[in-house]
Amino acid sequence: MSRSATTSSYSITMRLHTAPDHGVVGAVATAISQAGGIVTAIDVAESSHERLVVDVTCSAGDADHAQELQDVAAAVPGVEVYRTSDRVFLLHIGGKIEVGSKVPLKNRDDLSMAYTPGVGRVSMALYENPEDVRRLTIKGNSVAVVTDGSAVLGLGNIGPGAALPVMEGKAALFKRFADIDAWPICLDTQDTDEIVRAVELIAPGFGGINLEDIAAPRCFEIERRLRESLDIPVFHDDQHGTAIVVLAALTNALRVVGKQLDQVRVVVAGAGAAGTAIVTLMLAAGVGDVVVCDKDGALSSDDDTLSPAMAELASRTNHERRRGDLHTVLHGADVFIGVSAPGVLQAEWIPDMADDAVVFALANPDPEVDPAEASKYAAVVASGRSDYPNQINNVLAFPGVFRGLLDARASNVTIEMMLRAAEAIAHVVHDEELNPSFIIPTVFHPDVPGAVASAIKG
Questions:
Q1: Is the pTM of this model over 0.85?
Q2: Residues annotated as catalytic (active site), given as ranges
Q3: What letters, b where the CB count within 10 A reaches 16 and e where it falls short, cover 409-422?
Q4: Helix (H), strand (E) counts: the chain
Q5: What is the pLDDT of the chain when averaged over all its residues?
Q6: What is the predicted pLDDT for the residue at 364?
Q7: Which molecular-function annotation in GO is an example for this chain (predicted)?
Q8: Which of 241, 245, 243 is nearest to 275 (CA)?
Q9: In the 8-state DSSP scheme, what is residue 139?
Q10: 3-class SS at 47?
Q11: Cα–Cα distances in Å, from 390 out to 412, 428, 433?
């Protein structure tokens, strides 16, 4: 069965050698379309009496589908697939970020001020007045994006080298959405003590630390210890960025269905870093009835088999000590939030929830339930995917969060700041715009970073 192309993540360009008949090009486009691909561009690179050289760019659903599209193109009579380029890989050649100078270096005079001897005066001034480091260096606008490569996207423990493209992307997003200079720091260790010490040693050059893709429960201790030892804010985006955007989306979803935060029962699937942070922020926002499930079922404080991290989470939730699997505890719940694994929620279970149910299936790239199927039963559905309405994306939070922290010269991040950030994101969506398919602004909404930054600064 042919798959359908839904995103440009598997966008390829095929260079074809074809017979000198433009009708062949149309046949290729038709074959690709019938195989579920989306042709986005056709360019004739060369034309002669003997042959055409044609570049066909198309989107596929996944890597296997991309290969299928190459095969169907090659099967068209008179067509040879000369080579295929994956546009994602082409974009990453040489990396995605670079260092640029903010000052001219055109002559000896420029050099004498930007570097020696002029820079020596600035260094001595900072030695005498350390509080000026943020003002006279890049520290005031710089963030270290730190990972150990142990929990990269949905790919797992793939190590620091394989994590580098993700950290580069994060740095590019910081620059694009908040004009912050962020630096990928990929550490070749997964030892908690070594990670903490490494970050402490590089901290003087940065105004903030963004922890990224570090596995739970190690990430909890690393963040706690760094927050205690450093005088700059430490923010684990997988936890707190996710929590901020989820709370913003939940606030607006409940506005749609006419329910209040303090009146709903929420079931969270996933007890890792993101799930824990979401629960913490929801409780701070006033949600009173939360049940957390992992693969073994509901977490309850009367279960003495739980790990310390899960026992602590259970102690703050599930006050009625519900037990059972996800389907069991989902009965009567108003909200489902999934930060777990693909397919754990069956769409047919949603009618067992309360009327006007809200479903957030946030596992990426494959959600807990197909959003289209969930929409048949739930009043509001959100996911982490860009090809469905209501994408829950951390880009809505972290650029503005750090912009506010840097501008305020903050030394830490508080729950109150994060609550204000969530409220700011929620209210970018005005009442006249709010509907079941639009509960959260797009990541390109120009008002979001500034609103979040202002909220963080208070």
A1: yes
A2: 115, 170
A3: ebeebeeebbbbbb
A4: 17, 14
A5: 93
A6: 83
A7: oxidoreductase activity
A8: 243
A9: G
A10: strand
A11: 30, 14, 13
